[in-house]
Amino acid sequence: MTKVTRIRLYISTSLLLCVLALQGCSGALFKVKPVVELPPLPAGAKSGAVGGITIRVAPLINDEESQQLFEANLPVAGLLPVRVEMRYESGAPLEIEKAKFQLRDGQGREWKLVSAKQATSRIMKSNGIYAYNPYSKKQFEKEFGAYEIDLKTPLTAGERRQGFMFFQTPDKTAVTNSPGLVLVAERLPEALEIKLN
Which of 8, 38, 64, 147 is most buried, by the most CB atoms less than 10 A from its CB? Predict the structure, then answer.
């Protein structure tokens, strides 16, 4: 085998391995279930009402529920997804873009509300995913973000809106049994507190 033939064989083999590696990186990072109309919240969901708006909440505390929807263990990533349903029964549209939502635990620590995009970065980091196809990451962000509740559009009379809020633990460690969780909603017609557990 001549030197030129060996170089050609080496280059061909290298290119083939690169193509195969790139194809392996082009799949989805996580298989997020497609968003369909979420079923009604369970009857035991906690709720609170103020100024014509009723908010019902149900946290996904165990990893099975988050695995089922997102194929990712959000509690291990230090994230608590809280399913939220808002019903508005009053007249004029209600601006909720400036509303502030916080989660506090029994020790008085505040859990940070993060966007779906920030949550996907946190999930990837906790799973040690540093090398990926940018398209796969964008697809994961899009599919995961479809579950985030819309807090930018005003609520109109008779509207029911639902989705998830994602809260990060104060120390970015895994979510464990955290008694005394309270969702605090401010900058609505009045402040509202809902005990989650």
Answer: 147
Distance CA 124, CA 134 (A): 13
Q: Are 30 and 116 in contact (CB under 8 A)?
A: no
List phi, psi (to 5°) of 52.
Answer: 85, -5
For the chain, which residues make up each domain, given as ranges? 30-195
Question: Structure pTM?
Answer: 0.80
82 strand-pairing partners: 59, 165
Does 30-195 carry CATH code 2.60.40.10? yes
Beta partners for 147?
A: none
Q: Which amino acid is at 135?
A: Y
Residue type, 158: G
pLDDT single digits (tens) 5-19: 666 656 655 544 444
Q: What is the pLDDT of residue 4?
A: 60
CA dist 6 → 13, 17, 20 (Å): 10, 16, 21
φ/ψ region of 71 (left if φ > 0, alpha if ψ in -120 to 50, else beta) reads: left
Among 11-25, 100-114, 162-176, the range scoring the smallest mean pLDDT is 11-25
